[in-house]
Model the fold of this input.
Amino acid sequence: MMKPFDTPPELASSDLDLVICGFPGKSACHGGLGWSTVAMLRHGERIALVDAGNFGMRKLLIEQLDQRGLKPSQVTDLLLTHSHYDHSVNWTLFRDARIVVGAVEMDWALTVPWGETPVPELYIRALSDWPSCETVEDGAEVFPGMTAHLAPGHTPGCLVFHWRTPARDIIFTGDAAKNRAELISRDTDMTYDAAVSRATIEMIWDRWCERPGTIVVPGHDLPMVLDGNEPRYLGKRKASIRAWFGKDIATLTELDLTAGRE
Done:
């Protein structure tokens, strides 16, 4: 199996590992795609994940953790940027961890009409009653050196996580800014209010520019660093689909979704 992502040295030197790197696309014919980023952080004996991916990532998450000598039960903290299924539904894999979600987000997610949004209603309801679930407010410290910041637009309670390490700052934007196109244009593909999302993206830019070398890790794209005012990707994108277009299951056609695109 293709390794989902090769963590670049700029991240590895900050005790950060991208277990799965998100993809900046959506399906044209089959509903949502939901290939989101799952990042792993280490601090002493603590191991945290930022977001938990979707159902289709379960086996891959277990395999990727195993390659790092870890089991899901050894993850001590799960930090959720928001409640949508592609970021939150696998919290049950990490039910032994302290699970952090924004208080505003949880209040909103529990009231959305069932069956009408990307919120996995029953999973979020169960999470709200889970003993290790912790709802946090804007500005809360959620991991050593990391603070959570309300970033509305994609959902009312999205969080951006700002991690200050000795080597560099790292900002996890979740879907408040899903990809490079949204960061540069300040326009967003999924928002309940474009002006609110634009203000959130400006907040992300202000934080990005505070310290030279700061890395932004979006919810559905490669990590980036600024060269002047221009975002530059770190690492190399990997994404493909294997399809049975032949006459037997041994014949697979691999469709590279990244060819000629950077």
Remarks:
- The chain has seven helices and 15 strands.
- The mean pLDDT is 94.
- The radius of gyration is 18 Å.
- The longest helix spans residues 194-210.
